[in-house]
Amino acid sequence: MYKFFKSSFFNFEYLRVLGAAPFQASEVSECIEALTYLRNDDPESWYTTWNAFGDKAKLLGEEALAKQDKAAARWAFLRAANYYRSSEFFLHINPTDPRMLSAIEKSSKTHNRAIALLDTEVILFNIPYEDGIELPTRLYMPQSSSRGLGRIPLIVQTNGFDSTGEELYLYGPAGAIPRGYAVLSFDGPGQGLSSRRDKTILRPDWEHVTSKVLNYLFDTFAPKNDHLELDLNRIAIIGASMGGYFALRASVDPRIKACVSCDGFYSLFEVARSRMPSWFINSWLNGTMSDGMFNAISNFLARFNFQLNWEFKHSQWCYGVKTPADVMRVMQTMTLKMLDGSEYLEKVQCPVMVTGAAQTIYFEPQINAETVFANLEHLEKSRKLLWVGNGPSDGGIQAKIATLGLMHQRMFEWLDQQLGVVRLADTKKGTYQ
Questions:
Q1: In the sheet where 134-140 sits, what is the strand order?
Q2: Which H helix or E strand runs over 62?
């Protein structure tokens, strides 16, 4: 596969920005021009460049608004939000950098300006979590032209390891809105605006988070907004990468009627272990190597490997721990294997779509997607699906980066079947009944 950067990590993140173009969240020409200023393994050039392009797109949006061009303004604000999001990504090597919060706040504000210009309703609200903290939430309603008879199927969309609520638009609402689905997306603890503003941290038992989201939806929001006609008997959960793991954790809730786990993992620790020399990780596991030595070696190696440095620093920040050894312990809890040796997935009763990516830089399908699918053997064949993309154009890059159109096509084809969404022959309306 062609690479824009020597670093696979930087190349992946560049494709993440460029691949948003089909949904107006990047402009190919702007991404090409950005290459002039971006330098491999240089977080400052990354921040400066994408922040500048975010400012430029924001100004174009304001210019379009002044001329009553809603479409151009929406597109420009979507680009600005995505560029601002990307700008702070590599700054996570120093989680105290104030530009992280500033960039995500700018991303959130410009995204909200963009979605206010959609040809549909988007409702912004907060969901109570814990200790007075509320989770930023958006409910995207489908276009009126895509709605049919009956109530509207709903997708609950969970975030992952390093995405934001604004970026989630590309993975859910962008494809759902014209297909007659509503989407509820949120930043959970340790994610997006919640992590940067409220100092929340990720937790492995994500079903605890999604249960609070569903409780609020069922007990508070839906009863007060019955006019929206949300179908609470047709709720799907979706998530990509670590969000795919979180979606699987959430899918044991009987209120969830379908689950899409896009390129998630089975055991995060086993993924990390597979990337380390066996003598190194085994020495730490059996106690031959102390935490101090493990930390010293890991930190030394990270000085010469930007990706490793970013991964440890970002993990320490979002898990709320201080050392690489602490990160590894948290990773041991991020698994679908129960402490007693049983399988968490045995509790899943809803249909599940599992995807993997053959050219992933993170979660090899053999020990992740395929293992997850194998542990769904109790589900009938018609109620489960495995898709492992091979090659960039077939979804072979992690989280279906640069293949979002195909991801939506495959995902909604399957969700339509599982949730009983029947599309009519009139493709102009794209309605269901």
A1: 122-128, 134-140, 182-186, 152-157, 230-240, 258-262, 352-357, 384-389
A2: helix 43-66
Q: What global pTM score does this model have?
A: 0.95
Total Cβ atoms within 10 A of residue 283: 16
- Rounded distance, CA 35 to CA 12, Å? 14
Digit-coded pLDDT (tens) for 134-185:
999 999 999 888 876 789 999 999 999 999 999 999 999 999 999 999 999 9
3-state secondary structure (DSSP) of residue 343: strand
- In the numeric block, the tokens 């031959």 are attached to 288
Rounded Cα distance between 76 and 62, Å, is 9
Which residues have a Cβ under 8 Å from the Cβ of 363 and sit 6 or more positions away?
241, 263, 264, 265, 271, 356, 357, 369, 398
User: Is the CA virtual torsion 363, 366, 370, 374 positive or negative?
Assistant: negative
What Cα–Cα distance (Å) separates residue 120 from each residue in 142, 178, 251, 270, 408? 6, 10, 28, 43, 19
Q: What is the dihedral of CA 94, 96, 98, 99, to 10 degrees?
A: 20
List the catalytic residue out of 241, 251, 267, 298: 241
Catalytic residue check, 241: yes
> Is the alpha carbon torsion for 222, 106, 49, 61 positive or negative?
positive
* Enclosing H/E stretch for 335: none
- Decide: 298 and 324 in contact? Cβ < 8 Å: yes
Residue type for position 220: T
How many residues belong to the chain? 433
pLDDT tens string 312-371? 999 999 999 999 999 999 999 999 999 999 999 999 999 999 999 999 999 999 999 999
- What is the separation, in whole angstroms, between the first and last Cα of the chain? 42
Tokens of 179: 């297909």
Rg, the chain, Cα only: 21
| CA pair distance 396, 318, nearest whole angstrom | 27
